[in-house]
Amino acid sequence: MPLVDLHTHSTASDGILSPENLVSRAKSKGVEVLALTDHDTLAGVAAATAAAAAAGLKLIAGIELSSQWRGRGIHIVGLNVDTGHPAMAEARRHQLQVREERATRIADKLAKYGFEGTLAGARRWAGEAAVGRPHFARYLEEAGHVGSVNEAFKKYLGAGKPGDIKEMWPAMDRVVGWISAAGGVAVLAHPDKYQLTRTRLVALLEDFCEGGGRALEVISGFQQQRLTLELAELARRFELHVSCGSDFHVPDQPWQELGACGTLPPDCPPVWALWDAA
């Protein structure tokens, strides 16, 4: 089985490396099949595709779309999407508008803690990408309000904190619909990160499948084998294909390094079978 990494980020969203440098680093790590799945944008896919062709690496066009389900923020990865499809254009327009409005609300929340100028600071870190929480975190660190990006998330931006604003995202089934309409495969990303009970996770998967979801990310970066086996069992139960990815953003983080996403369970159909067989 080739070394596959189907969940990565570049400077087109909140990653550190340009699409070209991401491909170069993936190649150096032995990755043979790479998906670029930036948050709510396809802006880096063309550059990554060209770089991958030059490097002899297969590039899968992807996107990670934010959604909400029963009041929780849920991320859906779209793999092998038609980047020129009208559904992708609609998705990007909608998500960009939400991100702009959300960034303003995050800045307003942070202002209540005495942190001024956070929106301008986050925009500077984002560059041409849409502003997200990691950009706010980097500004808070730069301004000396926190000692690290991790501290910024722990105190102000992480799940359940003041800057974690998720009720503005579209419903999960709408997001899955965009991906499916564009010929892509909707994958439920990093299910363990939502910290759901088993009952709630099963309910999430039921709704995900009912809405047209087709795959489950059973490996997200470095994780315990026990978790992989538990998620694989759920994939079999719901007849989902399985995917894996590092969720790479920043170099030199061993738990999220490119290609460091283990081996998929051999008794589960891999997600790429859905497009290789097409």
UniProtKB/TrEMBL annotation:
Family annotation (Gene3D superfamilies): 1.10.150.650, Metal-dependent hydrolases
Pfam family for this entry, one: PHP
GO molecular function, one term: 5'-3' RNA exonuclease activity
Origin superkingdom: Bacteria
Name of the protein described by the UniProt record: PHP domain-containing protein
Coiled-coil regions listed: none
Species assigned in the record: Exilibacterium tricleocarpae
InterPro entries in UniProt: PHP_dom (IPR004013), PHP_domain (IPR052018), Pol/His_phosphatase_N (IPR003141), Pol/histidinol_Pase-like (IPR016195)
Domain Polymerase/histidinol phosphatase N-terminal: 4-69
